[in-house]
Specification:
The protein contains three helices and four strands. By secondary structure, it is of the alpha+beta class. The protein has a domain of 81 residues: Arc Repressor Mutant, subunit A (Orthogonal Bundle), CATH 1.10.10. A two-stranded antiparallel sheet has the order 1-2. The chain has a two-stranded antiparallel ribbon with strand order 3-4. Keywords: Membrane, Transmembrane, Transmembrane helix.
């Protein structure tokens, strides 16, 4: 075996190592954004299914109790997102669903209830 073979092998090993490092760095940089999108979608689905199962409407505290255990992430990669303050998360998700006309908010004297907008109205 000649010296050119060793030089070529060493250079190709270094290039592959650099490419794998760049791939891993880029993925770890984008992972929190991806998990944030995933938890947002998961919370929306959970809230919509929770409201649809309660035809009499739900309060903000009911929704907060329903989403307090929602988590996303990979055990192997070490990234996990969970709901740390369910009341604030429920309020944010409900506001987004109200803006997209999927949920309607009805205020009574003392309570505010949230109802699913029926598909027939749209």
């Amino acid at each position: 075996m000649n010296i050119e073979f060793y030089i070529l092998g060493t250079l190709s090993f270094a290039i592959m190592g650099a490419l794998l490092y760049i791939y891993g760095y880029k993925r770890s940089y984008n992972m929190p954004k991806e998990l944030q999108k995933q938890i947002g979608l998961k919370l929306e689905k959970k809230v919509i299914s929770f409201i649809s199962s309660h035809s009499q409407g739900v309060t903000l505290n009911d929704v907060a109790n329903a989403i307090k255990d929602v988590k996303v992430g990979s055990h192997f990669q070490g990234y996990k997102f969970s709901v740390s303050d369910p009341l604030i998360a429920a309020e944010a998700v409900l506001d987004k669903l109200i803006e997209t006309n999927k949920v309607k908010k009805i205020k009574n004297k003392n309570t505010t209830k949230y109802f699913l907008v029926s598909e027939e109205v749209k």
